[in-house]
Amino acid sequence: MLLWLLHRYGHLLEHLEPADVAAETRVFITSRTALASFTAFLLAVIFGPAAIRWLKGRFRERIASDSARLNELHKAKERTPTMGGLLIMGAMFTAVLLWGNLSNRYVQLAMLLSLGMGAIGTLDDWIKLSTTRKGLTVRQKFMGQLVVSLVVSALLYVEHRTRPHGLELLWPYGAFGISLGPLFVGWSMLLLVYSSNAVNLTDGLDGLAAGCMVFAGAAFVALSYLGGHKQLAGYLGTPYMPGCGELTVVLGAMVGAVLGFLWFNCHPAEVFMGDAGSLPLGGLIGLAALVTRQEILLAIVGGIFLIETLSVVAQVAWYRRTKTRILLCSPLHNHFLFQGMHETKIVTRFWITAALLAIAAIASLKLRAG
């Protein structure tokens, strides 16, 4: 309904979209992205207290890691309401329904991925909090993520196979690219599973994953807009993907919802997002990278998530080989916590790094243009 109103009266809000931009993307994307972001933020802030009260009566965090020292450090967080990802997803979905173009395939894929990954995360949280088990087994969780990723990747392959550079793995600083062909489906699945788990691993301190997601999400808001804008994509030498700009509205709504959630999640946290939030949020930035054909830049934009993931992989691999540890505790943020650094200082420094990485990734596009 709101999109129809913008079609009819949108000239009162915005008349700067160039005439050569595809018709489906020339529908006031910048205005709708801002409105979606603001709407999601307001919804999260307004309904946050009620959502926290509801979660407090049903889902409270249980501190039960394999590290006794980590359990002691997080003892004060015992019984904090969790599964706040439901608040994030609710605010984001509502904003997209209001301001997004639901006929756009990329919007449909983003919503499908969010629902699928969110369902897996919610089920994992529910089992963890309602039984004596530690959630889904690693195999069950991984298989669920693979199934969701397979469906989304196959649909994305169908959408991209007829488009220039749609199935190429592109080096962002030049014309070099590798055509993946049908292997795109496997590559897409791998990236979606990685990105969802990377954000999940980062979600260990108050506000850490949410704050980093704001910066990563904002960077992909810009990349999605550029990818759907023919003139700007041509100027910067980035792949032009018709319809890709509509993903900007979804990502804008995501950033707004996460900002609203961060209002309550900052230290000391009143609520945690749980897997119900971290899995779909991670999946969304992975999808944004695939849609815009900027998978390499994902390693920079989501550098914090990559480093956290690598710290776990390195810790496990090194311990299996030598029975000693590289870090005091993984992921990396726990290493600093074990060193005695205050949680707020760790989170703030990680936020600063995430912001710098996002800025560096966007600024580096000019290298290609040059």
Account of the 3D structure:
- With 370 residues, the chain is mainly α.
- Helices cover 68% and strands 2% of the residues.
- It contains 16 helices and two strands.
- It has a two-stranded antiparallel ribbon with strand order 1-2.
- Strand 1 and strand 2 form a beta hairpin.
- The longest helix has 28 residues, at 29-56.
- The protein starts with a helix and ends with a helix.
Task: Give a nutshell description of this structure.
This protein has 370 residues and is mainly alpha-helical.
Q: How are the SSEs ordered, and which strands pair?
A:
Layout: H1 2-9, H2 29-56, H3 68-73, H4 85-99, H5 105-130, H6 138-160, E1 168-170, E2 177-179, H7 183-202, H8 208-227, H9 230-236, H10 247-265, H11 275-292, H12 295-301, H13 303-322, H14 332-338, H15 343-363, H16 365-369
Count of DSSP-assigned helices: 16
Number of domains: 1
DSSP strand (E) fraction?
Answer: under 5%
Taken from the alpha-carbon principal axes, the silhouette is globular
Low-pLDDT ranges: 13-26
Termini gap: 42 Å
Oligomer: single chain
User: What is the overall pLDDT average?
Assistant: 89
How large, in whole angstroms, is the Cα Rg?
20 Å
Broad structural category: mainly alpha
Query: Main β-sheet, in a few words?
Result: 2 strands, antiparallel
**Helical content (DSSP H or I, runs of 4+):** 55-70%
Strand order across the largest sheet: 1-2
- The sequence of SSEs as H and E is HHHHHHEEHHHHHHHHHH
Q: Count the strands? A: 2
Q: Can you give keywords for this protein?
A:
370 residues; mainly alpha; two-stranded antiparallel ribbon; 2 strands
